[in-house]
Amino acid sequence: MEVVSIVKMILFTVAFWLFLIVIGFHTPAKRTKKIIELLMGGMILFFFLFEILALCAVFFRWKFHTLYWLVLGISVVLFVSSIVQNWDFIMRLIRFKKQETKKQKGSRLWYLPAVVLIVVQMYAGIFYTHIDDDDAFYVATASTTLETDTVFQYNAYTGDEYESLPSRYVLSPFPIFEAGLSRLYGVPSTVLGHTGMFLIFLPVAYFVYDLLGSFFWKNKRKERGLFLLLLAWMNIFGYYSVYTMSTFLLIRIWQGKAVLAAVILPLLFYYLLCAYKNEYQIQDIIQIFLTTGAAALTSSMGIFLAPIMVALGAFAGIIQTRKIGIAWKLLAGCIPCIILTGIYLLLRVEGMG
């Protein structure tokens, strides 16, 4: 692939991250004053909104360009309103981060070995592309969406129009999200999947792992750097099965189920830990609520796996605190998946897909 194209994608990726950070001020992540938290908050908010709008496009048979421009318009509104509402806070945060960086300049060197390994993984993923059989559906669906200007109306395998909605996939329109990014980046969906998605989501996955490290070693940069290094090293040797998280992270990150396994579920685990630490405040429930909705976007498995993880978190919290009310609070965080489960059952009962 041409160097110019790679540089262009890197610039677009940085711009996309900055957009997510800015809209992250609309989420409870604002209280943490952490850039990575804001990035994750913006990501789950954007995923959540895209899930709602994409499902409207599916069931009301909107043209893809209608969905694209609607999402773009709402994104601009979120971005501008976040800057206007939080300008003073953003300026204070920038000054605070500059001072913090000067104080912790030496301690950040512990991240360097991990960063080197992560860059190597990105290089291998981009320039030694793995061709996966599932591309016949996931990447092809994104391409079909762009070519036909429709949303889940044509079968990506055959090109024929669907007689009924594919219930297994229609509630998790991640390929439609990829089609939108493809148009935004100005590259074919195949190129975006095998290049742009590595640039976007591989670092994001390690950002999530660093958040987990910060939970256990809050102000200990050395331990957090070594933790990331260990994870990056283990992931390199994780391809002993096609079902491991390492495989999905390094080989198939452009697929929604890979983003679910490598990014969303670890992030949900982090939010459950924070909820326990903060005694299940409303801000924590909102973050869990948005994350379960984001999980639904990435894969139909997310509709079921996210509530299972939340249920396990509730069970552990009840045992630790002896407060049964925790279950009801966390149940509210699963409402998106509960609603989508009901829709899925209705689709199956009506014989669609």
Structural class: mainly alpha
Query: What sequence of helices (H) and strands (E) makes up the elements?
Result: HHHHHHHHHHHHHH
The count of strands amounts to 0
What general form does the structure show?
A: globular
Write structural notes for this entry.
This protein is 74% helix and 0% strand. By secondary structure, it is an all-alpha fold. The longest helix is centred in the N-terminal third of the chain and has 40 residues, at 64-103. The protein is globular. The mean pLDDT is 89.
Quick take:
The chain is an all-alpha fold. The chain has helices spanning 3-23, 35-59, 64-103, 112-127, 138-148, 174-185, 189-216, 221-236, 245-251, 256-277, 282-298, 300-321, 325-333, 335-349.
How is the secondary structure organized here?
Layout: H1 3-23, H2 35-59, H3 64-103, H4 112-127, H5 138-148, H6 174-185, H7 189-216, H8 221-236, H9 245-251, H10 256-277, H11 282-298, H12 300-321, H13 325-333, H14 335-349
Helix pairs in contact: 1-2, 1-3, 1-7, 2-3, 2-11, 4-7, 4-8, 5-6, 6-7, 7-8, 7-10, 9-10, 10-11, 10-12, 11-12, 11-13, 11-14, 12-13, 12-14
Please give a handful of descriptors for the protein shown:
mainly alpha; 74% helix; globular
